[in-house]
Design brief:
This protein has 245 residues and is α/β, with parallel strands linked by helices. It has helices at residues 2-21, 38-45, 58-61, 77-85, 95-99, 203-214, 222-244, and strands at residues 26-30, 49-53, 66-69, 89-92, 114-120, 124-126, 147-152, 161-166, 171-178, 181-186. It has a single domain, classed as Class I glutamine amidotransferase (GATase) domain (Rossmann fold, 3-Layer(aba) Sandwich), CATH 3.40.50.880.
Length: 245
């Protein structure tokens, strides 16, 4: 009996591992001036596969589930449009729209009136608590000694799904569809060391970016979920039969 139970348990664990691996996203982070590995380290520690790239083409971006871009050096708007239209997920952070002029299909958040490198955390106003980007995210109250970097007085462009504002009314999190993919704007520095990048180590910021690269908390594929249920049910049923015998 013991050998069969352990064999069944091993099969069940194997199915669980398949389900867990399905949660990992293949992420590219576009490097540039003042780059810091903090975001990369956070994603890798949470099971994501991260590749650092200094530049790209539409073809080189195609294999990635998500591309995080802060726009401090290299930007190719045409390549990014092609990538997103093909089903990719582009995540823009403040220098992307501050240093460059995004094409209309890629614009989520406007330029703003100032580039803020490290200012007291103002708190967050949630606009849509049901949005998957905020699953598991609990924003702290304003203050608390935390600093953030962002663009000030930025707004969402027309047609964007608005998820959250900074408490002073500056746009914080929003997204829009483009072809088969999606463009996400997060108005908070977490990549570049010339600003308050350490925010990424806050639990709420970690979860926000995990949600962003995974397009929300990952649910196992239907067949994988069925395999989990069948594996668990079969193992329990086997043990019960042996006990009855």
């Amino acid at each position: 009996m013991g050998g069969k139970v352990w064999a069944g348990l091993g099969a069940f664990v194997a199915v669980c591992l398949v389900a867990a691996s399905a949660q990992a996203a293949s992420v590219a982070i576009v490097q540039g001036d003042w780059w810091t590995p903090d975001l990369q380290n956070v994603l890798v520690a949470n099971g994501q596969t991260v590749t650092l790239i200094p530049n790209y083409t539409a073809a080189s971006l195609a294999p990635f589930d998500a591309v995080i871009h802060y726009g401090n050096s290299y930007v190719d708007m045409a390549a990014l449009e092609t990538y997103v239209q093909g089903g990719g997920r582009l995540i823009e952070t403040p220098w992307f729209w501050w240093n460059f002029a995004p094409t209309a299909p890629l614009q989520v958040i406007t330029h703003g009136s100032a580039a803020q490198h490290a200012v007291p955390y103002p708190g967050v106003t949630v606009l849509d608590a049901s949005d998957p980007l905020l699953d598991g995210v609990s924003f702290p109250a304003a203050g608390g000694g935390l600093s953030i970097g962002r663009t000030l007085n930025s707004a969402f462009v027309a047609g964007v799904t608005q998820v959250a504002d900074w408490a002073d009314g500056t746009a914080m999190i929003g997204y829009r569809s483009l072809g088969a993919g999606e463009v996400v704007g997060i108005n908070m520095h977490v990549i570049t060391s010339d600003t308050a990048y350490w925010t990424i180590h806050e639990p709420w910021a970690t979860q926000l970016f995990l949600n962003a690269v995974q397009a929300g908390p990952v649910v196992p594929e239907p067949l994988t979920l069925l395999g989990l249920l069948l594996g668990a049910g079969g193992l329990v049923g086997y043990v019960r039969k042996r006990r009855a015998a």
